[in-house]
Amino acid sequence: MKFVCKGLDLNDALSKVIKACSTKGVGTVLEGVKLVAENGTLTLTATDLELAIEKTITAEIFEEGEALVPGKLFSEFVRRLTNMNVECLLTEKNQLRISYGESTGLISCYNVLEFPNFKKIENAEYFQLKQKDLKDIISKTLVSVALDDSKPVFKGVLFEVEEKSLTAVSLDGFRLSKIEKPITKSTAQTSAIIPSRSLTEIHKLLEDTDAGVKIKIQKNYLMAELKETVILTRLIDGDFINYKRIIPQNQSAKVTLNREHFEEAIERASLLSRIERSNIIKLEITDGQIVITSNSERGEIKEVVTAKTNKNDLSIAFNAKYLLDAIKNMPEGFVEMSLETKVDPCIIRPEGDGDYLYLILPVRLA
To answer: Exposure check for the chain: N or C terminus, fewer CB within 10 A?
Structure first.
């Protein structure tokens, strides 16, 4: 195998696929990046058996072939060659000779025959939506994904694919995120639970454009196709909770307030609670305002935010971080909080509903 390509292109490709390399010491071949040189292109692939990423770039191929290079070492080496052309040659001793300018490097490779095959999903059901919409979906649902292993299905995001829309839901036992976006094309009406790690990597590849991204689902796998990049991931097996039963309807208390002012007030009020690690702030809804307070042995902070309310004398407490996560994901303008009592869930959404909502459980105080 022998090829020449731009160092910048090679570095960009490696920075994408390296995220799928194993870091748990499962096996040396899973720490490698497979290089395949053929038909005027260089294809790079990495996998840890749960997530696989493939990226294709243009290259001048002098001799077709393939090699399995140590991912981390090769990536860090190429990162320092972005301003020059790079020539790679696989020697008879299974070493990759890297030539750049007047200098060379030599890296020992793994046995490429031991690397798992990258099986693309073909002839499967699919749906397509705008990249900016999928990016918005991922950023607004990852915040509520569970971090512990007690309930594996909650470590992913539920995708419910209908004829014209995609609904995504995540929850961790304390809050829930739900968002809906239109689908531009679809042959699927199905549901799947996608691991949060895979969605994080997909999110990094998406752009804020109307360009489409194609998602294929087949059995226990999902594949996302983006230009010259393909991501393949295992789905999480199990039954997601019936989230519709969790979301309350027709809550009597409504509070509308400026998102920016609300965020700034919570940030300041939570300074003391973060020091004490309780992270609890109290909200008191009165006529035309919300009073936000936090207390600790260090002192007390009291914030007053103007609001439109239809119910007075309602006090409720929240984990400040969970509340901030919700507010920061809201668009500019005004947000609406729907409440009932100090022990019932609170729903936060953009004023006028919008296409998403957050549900947060209050903290019960002694």
So the answer is: C
